[in-house]
Design a protein that fits this description.
Layout lengths: L2 H9 L18 H6 L12 H4 L6 H6 L14 E5 L3 E5 L5 E5 L7 E4 L5 H8 L15 H8 L9 E5 L3 H7 L1 H10 L1 H23 L7 E5 L3 E2 L2 E2 L3 H21 L5 E4 L8 H6 L4 E3 L10 H8 L4 E6 L1 H4 L3 H17 L2 E5 L9 H14 L4
Parallel strand pairs: 5-6, 6-9, 9-10, 10-11, 11-12
Antiparallel strand pairs: 1-2, 2-3, 3-4, 7-8
Helix pairs in contact: 7-8, 8-9, 9-10, 14-15
Length: about 375
Amino acid sequence: MNERERFIAAMHYQPRDRSPLWDFGFWEDTLPVWHEQGLPAHIDRLNSEVYFGMDSGPETCADLVGVEAGLAPKFEEKVIEDLGEDRLLQQEDGVRVLRRKRFPSIPQPQQHLCVDRASWRKHYKPRLDPANPARYPADWDARVRYWTDPQRDLPLVLPGGSLYGWIRNWVGMENLALVLYDDPAWFEEMVETVADCIIGTLTRILATGAQFEACGMWEDMAYNAGPLISPRHFAQYLVPHYRRISDLLHKHGVDVVWIDCDGNIEKLIPLWLEAGVNCMFPLEIGTWGADPVRYRREYGKDLLIMGGFDKHILARSQTEIAAEVHRLSPLVEEGGYIGFCDHRVPPDVPYANYLFYLETVRREWGKN
């Protein structure tokens, strides 16, 4: 089987030669640490899939589409001020953040451009026009030929965008929490505008007649105690627009729609399923004890899962790694699940442990 056939079979509970071998990549400082532990110096995040013998992962499959469903054009990314160990940067989303130069962690927001309805309509709403040619690749015709090639061997992942996470970034988490109560009409306008942009962009891609294997969305709208937005507001403002997007995808035969959301998402899973978003990715385990095996018991085969291998286990003993691979094996073999680290592999995972994990996965998850 090629990678496209293998992905389709795995996600539809069909026989296959083996499980797809995926990972979600690495923190920026993971590979430099591994270089000191024996990883060849020429291996970076661009060529690591080939070096480790992995299948083409979710980001590679999304890059084959190469369409921007969000801001277009993006803001200029630039250094505002050098602060020694840190830099004040303007990101592509217009937000000014503080980022460490060495071993950067999550950047810390310092200033938001989108602070009220006027600044939203001036700086952001015009960049959400689905007809803007800046969001489509210059080699569009070549892309379409590849997408529609019946012999292509890689799955294609459509850009599903973000209904909450993008807006939270643009406005700021605390400010957006207040907007939901102080000016819900503005919040609704932003969500609807973003959804219209995503739908318009997807409509042009789907009009090519190509068959796409999946659509990936991103939110990061939860923390260890639960979602950053109440389930009531989620159902009121977001579910109808998730449904609009999923209905369009289903109409064109795209029935794997995943959401990339960190944190404790247990209160949101039923609402996403109701809205047609049927795959959780990368299913962060966390201190709240998420578990792909338990979720399969609770939701059955309606819920597809990717990820769900606790990153903390990768940093512990090889005995514990082997035990977790073995525990997840029945789920892998049943299908509807592609196992990999529950986020990007962090630098506290020893290089030797990662090699052991891959060796064990190939042996245990390489069965039909």
